[in-house]
Amino acid sequence: MKIINVVGARPNFMKIAPLMAQYTKYSQIEPLLVHTGQHYDEKMSDLFFRQLDIPKPDINLEVGSASHAVQTAEIMKSFEPMLLKYKPDVVLVVGDVNSTVACGIVAVKLGVKLVHVEAGLRSFDRSMPEEINRVVTDSISDLIFCTEQSGVDNLIHEGISKDRIFIVGNVMIDTLLKHINRAQNSTILNHLHLNSNDFAVLTLHRPSNVDDYIVFGRILDALEVIHKDMPIIFPVHPRTRKQLQDSHLMAQIQKMHYLGLIEPLGYLDFLKLMSSAKIVLTDSGGIQEETTFLKIPCLTLRENTERPITTEIGSNQVVGANPAKIIEGYKQAMNGQLRNFKIPPLWDGLASERIVEILIDKLSG
Ligand code: UD1
Asked: Which pTM was predicted?
């Protein structure tokens, strides 16, 4: 069974890593890895390949950054000839980035079986590009792997046949478990002069937060309050840095002595930082899950989450970009309200093993 695996952007790398490792145990699987090049900076891509032991991609489409339509179209144009050349039995895509949907569409149109890992998640917010990518990819996939029960329920509600859907756990947690001990050797706390459990971590990159200066400014207003209690470490995504440089907001940040802007971190340093933090504030999807597993309170700076299990069990609170709600959520978290919960079922480090067994059972021969 020849499987072309697709990655494009940073959050894809931790999802593909355990699958690539798992394939090596099965002689009947011939994996190929395609990097679309959606993310291309050393700190957004190559560093993750090295730290997560992901094999060098067999093919790099080198599409780079562009508008959604152009980026998606460029990926499709470059991916189609690869499928014609390598003739895989299966294309496997992960997550919800433009590379996911672009390669998914190309695969099914060429009659290649499509597998979607981390499927079924829904924010029910169609202004999010990722929501469109999720809905489209799920609707055309042959096998669909979910991390939580809400994913299964959403797919059934959308009319997807039950026999295509499997709840298998979370491949990102497979990666976290594999690397958590190694991450403890990271020197990032010393490097940033931080004491464990005495600082907050912030990540922001959603267009709805960082492309709108008013929204971004309101988040900074809330941070002005929190940073009086503890330093806030802010590894800045390239998209966010660009927005900051183009705006007056940098001046507001510079006045906040304890808001530390740093370059994007590699996986191990970020894991160490997150697992040592008192609280994490983020608009990322994956970080809501990682903090849940690490039992670090998380405030989600968005109006919704596609990962409702995290709010149901109480590890995560959705506070949007409203300063009063952010500060209230922060106070509740500091009172210990987000710490008392059980890890979601099947987030046990074995998701990739389950996925590969199902692939062999359902698709080989
Ligand atoms: C993409 C994903 C998003 C994911 C995020 C994680 C889509 C629609 N969005 O958003 O779901 O959460 O990745 O990071 O697929 N840039 C660089 N270097 C890079 C990559 C990007 O400088 O290696 C800059 C470019 O200016 C680019 C901008 O960041 O225009 C945005 O990159 P893009 O890939 O379009 O979207 P992300 O915001 O990273």
From this structure: 0.97
